[in-house]
Amino acid sequence: MSEISGHHSFRKVPLTHAMVLLTNRCNATCSFCECARLERASVEHPAEPWISTIAQLHRAGARRVVISGGEPLLHPGFTRITEYAASIMKRVIICTNGILLDSCDPSLFSIPSLQWTISVHSADAAHHDAITDVPGAFARIERFLAEVHAHRATAARFAFNATCCDVLTDFRPLIAFAARTGVEQLTINPLWSAEKGNCPRHLEDLSQAERDRAFAEASGVKVLDFRFPSNVSPPGCYEVLSGMVINPQGECFPCMNAAGGFRADSGFSYGNALSGSIADIRSSQRYRDVLELGHRRSLDFCSTCHAPVRQSSLYEYLQLSTSGALSPFLHHQNKAIMPQGG
User: Are 97 and 121 in contact (CB under 8 A)?
Assistant: First the structure.
């Protein structure tokens, strides 16, 4: 594949993944989530146009799709959409707050290509429920996972995504909770807080970043070079070239930051997948214009983006993934911090 140097080259970069936001609705009002404070549009498209869109994404080259929202399980066509996506994609990731998992069609949990990423913000039930503003939310998730784990009744994979509101120390109980319930992957974002919201442009509190790093180092970790150290970092952002985010209104964006939460008027849409075709969108001048700006990191939010390829990001997060056993990674300004002996 040739180097990307201008408009003519963008079409040579294949689409590899996409995020589909089925609905604006959510049954939680998480304290850190900016989306909870935005006006949510009432438009909610049925299953058929979403199935058509996912088929078009697949034809364009995408082999991984993230289904999110709002809370995607609230969409009346969720089961049909998910089953179809799983039938053609190599990996389908469902981002959910987990409250409705116990009411899902059980057949979905027998699909091995599905990964259910559940928002669990604390191993303490009261703290998690306070963050989500849903009494009993943690208990429902815990009961569901315990039942699944006890009966080995699933071929699907489960992951946690935790946003710790100034409670980075809570990550150790979360590791234990994940291991106990058979969860294979855990991502912790320690810098988010109720005051900052969930927009990366707010995550510039270096003093907090340094406190997080000090805590990690005090926990017996060492610093390793990140995969894109500054002297060999790619010249531009490739996330915007190979991905696509489609909001509930069908508007298409190069990344989640460009989508601007639930706002349909962020100014960075390059087409509507529900009123046009993915192929036409990707061949349009507007698509090429937006991608050129994004690839050069010239969009107004790029300077604070936390994408791994960014050379000078202040965003720091604790990534806990699995390969047999859970092992934590903390990325910090082109460094990866991991356990001693890791």
Answer: no
The beta-carbon contacts of 308-315 under 8 Å, at least 24 apart in sequence, are 308/226, 308/227, 308/228, 309/228, 309/233, 309/234, 309/237, 309/238, 309/239, 310/237, 311/228, 311/230, 311/233, 312/230, 314/203, 314/204, 314/205, 314/206, 314/209, 315/191, 315/200, 315/203, 315/209
What's phi and psi for 303, nearest 5 deg? -65, -20
Chain centroid to CA 167: how far? 21
Coarse DSSP helix, strand, coil percentages of the chain, rounded to the nearest 5 percent: 35, 20, 45
| Percent of the residues in the chain that have a pLDDT greater than 70, as a whole number | 61
Cα–Cα separations (whole angstroms), residue 13 to 5, 210, 241: 12, 37, 7
**So what CATH class is 7-339?**
alpha beta
291-312 average pLDDT score: 58
Mapped onto helix, strand or coil, the DSSP state of residue 197 is strand
Over residues 261-273, the pLDDT tens digits come to 545 556 788 999 9
Q: Cite the beta strand spans of 180-237 per DSSP E.
A: 185-189, 221-225
DSSP, residue by residue, 123-148: SSHHHHHHHHT-TTHHHHHHHHHHHH
The SS3 call for residue 159 is strand
For residue 201, pLDDT over 90 is answered with no
The domain ranges of the chain are: 7-339
Give phi and psi for 215, each to the nearest 5: -65, -45
Cα separation, 133 vs 31, in Å, equals 8
The residue with tokens 């998480």 is 30
Strands (DSSP E) contained in 89-180 are 91-96, 114-119, 157-163
Give pLDDT, residue 284.
Answer: 93
> Per residue in 19-29, pLDDT tens?
999 998 899 98
Pairing of strands 157-163, 185-189: parallel
Assess whether pLDDT exceeds 80 at residue 74.
yes
Q: What is the pTM of this model?
A: 0.77
